[in-house]
């Protein structure tokens, strides 16, 4: 294979809900493919079908169904709060052999909140106030699956959060439904999207032409520093030279402000730039933030798996064509 | 009056302008109703008088009856409130808006006095109660003078909030702080002194009809100015005295304990303006005037002024307009000249003025929050969005009037660029994921009202049992095939209309499709009941069902047949999520239609991973012509436009809203967008203010960002403008408007397709459309549209005589009895009846000259019509 490259991933920061890493030694198309897969093709669980038994709340059926659909559903295989890749545990429901639904292709949630019943057991000061039905009222028939509330134990202990609100009930109102979650991808509907943000940007290469900079006064240098809204430049306190700030590469936004500022300082327009921020062509800074359905790390791994499966499929098809 | 006439003849004063608000007052609904009821009372009493006179003449028992209350009530019933009485007349007036009056009540029109207060959204509802119409009469007027925006209406009527088109300038709306006096100011209470006495006490020489104070005598000097109270001459006073009286009255108006009405209008028109208005001191206390508050500088209090005095006062708009020694008053707020809806437009002072007018129009068409009592309302049509938000960029009025309680739109991330071409010509691209997450989701609530009594009588006419018919479901016998062979089939009873319950109504929450029954009237008989069907094409959810007693408010219902009039009101909910072709707009008169739902992966994204909800084309936005040089350089750089370009939209307010929204969402705060707070000449211009905020949040000063193409992943070689703009969804939806026809109903006379969407009609391909097809040489298409898809017809015409009407068919006379199907001879022969042709062929044979030709059916119809007038159309057929 000509010019075979071996892309590298260097993780800058990792947490359950977000990950930033540098993808290098590959090109834009690969970086964009990874981004697109993370947004649109990583399979997750989401509520897809709702059966109403009773809904006397103020919101109508399809409104509640829409809200239920957007609740991130988490699959944690090992009984922890970790959100894992669900593709091996479930079958896409259209490919499932069952007639309607079965535990292999779907998870059932029951929700039954009756204001009048709950009201009896509420503390005095809260009694008769509107009751919020949240994602915590959803009871799954599969212990490994739950609506996402918290990313880890620590957060769960610290937070006073009661889950994602679905609807508020008043006196005499009752909501009872069965919600069926299925596996799907966000290409079909945004509720299956595991990421809040999945983006990359080109690694900036900041070059400072010290020779040219020597012609600048301190005021002009300071002006250049101030011109960057992303604060990538600073003045060295000792030498008075311009230098990139620490971590400037992660901050740089390639704004044109810097260019305009230094164009104004140049004696002739064809003079060399004092500071140049250029795009690297084979290094990408990725930032992925999870919606809560999966851990950020698993989103990345899953997207790589999807990509690999696709390429294998393509290779197999090409092989078939050869025969 | 006579002096005014002389003065006018001498050319000293000019003509009073009837179109100026100075000389106008407002006809209030209460006043109109009051005079109307008064007149009806008069009519009623008059008819009773006549009736009594007749009774006296005709009945000898009159004297015996006079003492009986029962007889009087009979008389009142018979003569006083015949034909429903006053109540029925008032309710007729209120429901139709047509005034039926014997005197005319000095009104210029007889109809159009009522409009339905639509609760489409809260803005529309508000606007109904602040609108002022000049009158139907002026609508037909050819001249535009009455529609002109005159400076007199400053602060009273909003210059922005008027529709464009027919009622432009005639239907205006009152400014925010403008009030209309419902009562004469004297009635306000308090210790008010008599104005005439006060004036005379101050040295006004009483004259002529000086009212209570004047004794009818007295003289008037020609050097004196007339002093009038409510149009009544009190006396005369010198110019100097008039001026000081006006000054003193103003002080009294705002005093702690006012001794003259607070809303007294003190119009001192000084002499010395050749051709100007007639000088004098005019005081007004009557009702139906408009007044508005301004600040009196000397006392620092709020004074109410009227439109007559305003042009002769010195009111500064802004503090820098004050000229010491001259300026006596100041505006409380420069934005007070706008109406409620106009003042909700953010940065409206940066927009081209017609755009603000469009926004006033579109704000009222927005699907928003009509109210919070939805379950209890039964309006014909209500629109509601499901995911409303408070605008990030809002004006002071927005908070003051609690508009957050009635939100009308969503804050959307808007990128201004040309992407994919789907955003050109006022279209907009919507992010598919944003749509799936709820952007613009909405529903329409329609209420169907059914008169059960009427439906019942219809059912009875069809043969239902009159005594047993009621709302209910029918049962039907269903034969169940036996499980085992040889068993007898069993019979079970099922509901005939499975989607209706036993009370003949669908359950709340059920979905009904076209043709499904909405209600059923049934008796015990073996018929299939009387059902009312869901007529709309769209499926709907039953939101609410009410059974009504409709006899309630009816007058004359005492023991009459209407007492048990039953009604039904079914509220249906139609889900209306955005589809391609639905209309959206920002708050700057920038409307656009949704052209495509674009996948999020293919949308452009910024460095921080934000992809826009909405993409609009920059050409639909921009404008430079009216900008100051400074803003012009800002925005021209942003849009890479030639600064000499002369675009037409000029909605800079939208660009600033976008910047403000973006910085507001970064810093987590609402932004103030009250018009006139930023000023081009001031120390802070809006662009700089928000630019600095953006820079503090790490963004580009002008809100532009480099964007990556979502498809290729490459950086797009331009700084692109992206920010947060409040978007409204308008009620014009494709599903209400689409029109489709392949074949369908035709007009029976011409056999051409009928028009009208409801009836499945077509859209006319008119003369101009025909011309454009002609000029393109698209003959086949033209032929297809005008003939084949319209009234194509095959007619027999005679080649020999050229006649279309004479050819006819005749059944073979020989074979008319005992025909055989396989007879080779023609059973129907075609021939021409024309005297010249009829003998040209042998008997019993087809005439070869008669041939079928294709022509539009209307042509045949025309030939017939002309034949009726003894005109023959002859065709030369080759």
From TrEMBL, chain A:
Source organism phylogeny: Eukaryota, Sar, Stramenopiles, Ochrophyta, Bacillariophyta
Keyword flag Ribonucleoprotein: no
An individual GO BP term: transcription by RNA polymerase II
Keywords for the protein's UniProt record, in alphabetical order: DNA-directed RNA polymerase, Transcription
Family: Belongs to the archaeal Rpo3/eukaryotic RPB3 RNA polymerase subunit family.
Entry annotated with the keyword Transcription: yes
Database matches in HAMAP family: RNApol_arch_Rpo3
Native species: Thalassiosira oceanica (Marine diatom)
PANTHER family, A to Z: DNA-DIRECTED RNA POLYMERASE, DNA-DIRECTED RNA POLYMERASE II SUBUNIT RPB3
GO function term, MF aspect, one: DNA binding
Protein name: DNA-directed RNA polymerase RpoA/D/Rpb3-type domain-containing protein
From TrEMBL, chain B:
Function: DNA-dependent RNA polymerase catalyzes the transcription of DNA into RNA using the four ribonucleoside triphosphates as substrates.
Source species: Thalassiosira oceanica
Coiled-coil spans in chain: none
Gene3D superfamilies: 3.90.1070.20, 3.90.1100.10, DNA-directed RNA polymerase, subunit 2, domain 6 (2.40.270.10), RNA polymerase alpha subunit dimerisation domain (3.90.1800.10)
Reactions the enzyme catalyzes: RNA(n) + a ribonucleoside 5'-triphosphate = RNA(n+1) + diphosphate
Domain DNA-directed RNA polymerase subunit 2 hybrid-binding: 341-618, 641-759
Sequence ranges assigned to domain DNA-directed RNA polymerase I subunit RPA2 in this UniProt record: 234-292
Assigned EC number: 2.7.7.6
Signal peptide: none
Span of domain RNA polymerase Rpb2: 116-179, 761-876
PROSITE patterns assigned: RNA_POL_BETA
Cellular component, GO, one term: nucleus
Protein name, per record: DNA-directed RNA polymerase subunit beta
Alphabetical keyword list: DNA-directed RNA polymerase, Metal-binding, Nucleotidyltransferase, Nucleus, Transcription, Transferase, Zinc, Zinc-finger
Molecular function via GO: DNA binding; DNA-directed RNA polymerase activity; ribonucleoside binding; zinc ion binding
Pfam families tied to this protein: RNA_pol_Rpa2_4, RNA_pol_Rpb2_3, RNA_pol_Rpb2_6, RNA_pol_Rpb2_7
Top EC group: transferase
Transferase keyword on record: yes
Keyword Transferase applies: yes
């Amino acid at each position: 294979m000509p010019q075979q490259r071996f892309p590298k991933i260097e993780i800058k920061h990792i947490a359950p809900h977000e990950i930033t890493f540098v993808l290098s030694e590959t090109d834009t198309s690969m970086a964009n493919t990874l981004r697109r897969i993370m947004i649109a093709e990583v399979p997750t669980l989401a509520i897809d079908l709702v059966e109403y038994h009773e809904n006397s709340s103020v919101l109508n059926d399809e409104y509640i169904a829409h809200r239920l659909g957007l609740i991130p559903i988490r699959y944690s295989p090992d009984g922890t709060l970790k959100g894992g890749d669900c593709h091996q545990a479930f079958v896409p429901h259209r490919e499932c052999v069952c007639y309607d639904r079965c535990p292999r292709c779907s998870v059932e949630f029951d929700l039954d909140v009756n204001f009048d019943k709950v009201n009896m057991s509420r503390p005095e000061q809260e009694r008769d106030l509107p009751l919020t039905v949240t994602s915590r009222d959803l009871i799954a028939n599969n212990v490994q699956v739950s609506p996402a509330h918290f990313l880890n134990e620590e957060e769960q202990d610290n937070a006073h959060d009661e889950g994602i609100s679905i609807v508020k009930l008043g006196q005499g109102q009752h909501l009872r439904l069965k919600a069926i979650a299925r596996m799907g991808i966000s290409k079909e509907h945004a509720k299956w999207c595991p990421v809040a943000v999945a983006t990359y940007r080109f690694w900036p290469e900041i070059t400072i032409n010290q020779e040219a900079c020597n012609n600048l006064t301190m005021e002009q240098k300071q002006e250049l520093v101030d011109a960057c809204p992303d604060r990538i430049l600073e003045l060295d306190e000792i030498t008075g030279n311009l230098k990139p700030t620490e971590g400037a590469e992660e901050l740089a936004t390639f704004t044109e402000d810097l260019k305009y500022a230094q164009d104004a300082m140049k004696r002739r327009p064809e003079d060399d730039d004092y500071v140049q921020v250029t795009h690297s062509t084979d290094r990408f800074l990725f930032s992925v933030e999870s919606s809560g359905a999966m851990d950020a790390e698993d989103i990345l791994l899953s997207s790589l798996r999807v990509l690999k499966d696709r390429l294998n499929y393509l290779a197999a098809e090409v092989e078939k064509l050869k025969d | 009056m006579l002096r005014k006439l002389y003065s006018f003849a001498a050319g000293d004063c000019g003509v009073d302008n009837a179109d100026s608000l100075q000389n106008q007052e407002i006809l209030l609904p209460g006043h109109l109703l009051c005079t109307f009821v008064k007149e009806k009372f008069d009519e009623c009493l008059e008819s009773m008088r006549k009736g009594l006179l007749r009774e006296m003449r005709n009945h000898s028992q009159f004297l015996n009856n006079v003492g009986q209350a029962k007889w009087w009530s009979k008389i009142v019933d018979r003569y006083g409130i015949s034909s429903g009485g006053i109540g029925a007349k008032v309710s007729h007036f209120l429901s139709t808006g047509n005034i039926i009056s014997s005197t005319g009540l000095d009104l210029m029109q007889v109809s159009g006095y009522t409009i339905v207060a639509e609760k489409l959204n809260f803005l529309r509802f508000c606007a109904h109660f602040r609108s002022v119409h000049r009158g139907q009469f002026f609508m037909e007027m050819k001249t535009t003078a009455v529609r002109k925006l005159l400076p007199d209406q400053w602060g009273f009527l909003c210059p922005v909030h008027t529709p464009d088109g027919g009622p432009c300038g005639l239907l205006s709306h009152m400014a925010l702080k403008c009030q209309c006096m419902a009562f004469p100011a004297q009635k306000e209470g308090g210790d008010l002194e008599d104005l005439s006495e006060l004036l005379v006490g101050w040295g006004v020489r009483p004259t002529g009809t000086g009212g209570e104070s004047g004794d009818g005598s007295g003289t008037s000097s020609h050097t004196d100015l007339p002093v009038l109270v409510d149009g009544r001459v009190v006396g005369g006073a010198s110019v100097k005295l008039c001026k000081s009286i006006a000054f003193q009255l103003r002080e009294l108006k705002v005093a702690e304990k006012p001794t003259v009405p607070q809303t007294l209008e003190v119009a001192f028109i000084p002499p010395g303006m050749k051709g100007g208005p007639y000088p004098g001191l005019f005081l007004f206390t009557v009702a139906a005037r408009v007044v508005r508050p301004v600040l009196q500088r000397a006392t620092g209090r709020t004074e109410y002024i009227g439109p007559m005095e305003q042009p002769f006062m010195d009111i500064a708009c802004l503090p820098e307009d004050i000229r010491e020694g001259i300026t006596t008053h100041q505006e409380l707020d420069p934005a007070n000249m706008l109406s409620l809806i106009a003042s909700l437009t953010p940065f409206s002072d940066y927009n081209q003025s017609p755009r603000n007018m469009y926004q006033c129009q579109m704000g009222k068409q927005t699907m928003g929050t009509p109210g919070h009592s939805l379950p209890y309302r039964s309006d014909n049509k209500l629109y509601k969005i499901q995911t409303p938000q408070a605008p990030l960029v809002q004006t002071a009025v927005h908070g003051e009037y609690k508009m957050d309680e009635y939100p009308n739109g969503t804050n959307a991330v808007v990128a201004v660029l040309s992407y994919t071409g789907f955003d050109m010509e006022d279209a907009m691209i919507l992010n598919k994921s944003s749509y799936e997450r709820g952007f613009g989701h909405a529903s329409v609530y329609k209420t169907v009202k059914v008169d059960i009594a009427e439906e019942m009588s219809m059912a009875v006419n069809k043969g239902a049992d009159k005594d047993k018919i009621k709302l209910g479901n029918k049962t039907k016998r269903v034969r169940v095939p036996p499980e085992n062979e040889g068993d007898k089939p069993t019979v079970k009873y099922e509901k005939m209309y499975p989607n209706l319950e036993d009370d003949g109504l669908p359950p709340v929450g059920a979905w009904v499709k076209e043709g499904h029954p909405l209600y059923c009237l049934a008796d015990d008989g073996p018929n299939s009941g009387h059902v009312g069907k869901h007529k709309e094409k769209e499926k709907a959810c039953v939101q609410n069902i009410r059974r009504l007693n409709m006899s309630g408010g009816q007058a004359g219902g005492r023991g009459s047949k209407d007492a048990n009039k039953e009604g039904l009101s079914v509220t249906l909910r139609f889900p209306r999520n955005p589809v391609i072709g639905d209309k959206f707009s920002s708050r700057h008169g920038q409307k656009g239609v949704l052209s495509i739902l674009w996948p999020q992966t293919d949308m452009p994204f910024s460095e921080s991973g934000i992809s826009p909800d909405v993409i609009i084309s920059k050409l639909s936005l921009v404008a430079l012509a009216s900008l100051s040089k400074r803003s012009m350089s800002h925005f021209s750089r942003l849009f890479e436009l030639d600064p000499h370009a002369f675009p037409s939209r000029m909605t800079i307010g939208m660009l600033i809203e976008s910047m403000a929204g973006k910085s507001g969402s970064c810093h987590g705060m609402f932004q103030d967008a009250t018009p006139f707070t930023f000023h081009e000449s001031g120390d802070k211009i809006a662009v700089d203010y928000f630019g600095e905020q953006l820079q503090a949040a790490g963004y580009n000063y002008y809100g532009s960002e480099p964007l990556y193409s979502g498809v290729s992943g490459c950086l797009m070689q331009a700084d692109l403008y992206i920010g947060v703009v409040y978007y409204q969804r308008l009620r014009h939806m494709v599903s209400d408007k689409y029109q489709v026809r392949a074949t369908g109903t035709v007009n029976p006379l011409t056999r051409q397709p009928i028009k009208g969407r409801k009836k499945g009609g077509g859209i006319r391909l008119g003369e101009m459309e025909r011309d454009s097809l002609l000029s393109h040489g698209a003959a086949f298409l033209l032929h297809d549209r005008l003939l084949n898809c319209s009234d194509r017809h095959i007619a027999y015409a005679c080649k020999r005589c050229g006649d279309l009407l004479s050819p006819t068919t005749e059944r073979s006379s020989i074979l008319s009895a005992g025909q055989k199907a396989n007879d080779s001879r023609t059973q129907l022969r075609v021939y021409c009846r024309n005297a010249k042709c009829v003998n040209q062929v042998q008997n019993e044979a087809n005439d070869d000259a008669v041939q079928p030709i294709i022509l539009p059916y209307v042509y045949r119809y025309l030939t017939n019509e002309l034949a009726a007038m003894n005109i023959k159309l002859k065709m030369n057929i080759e």
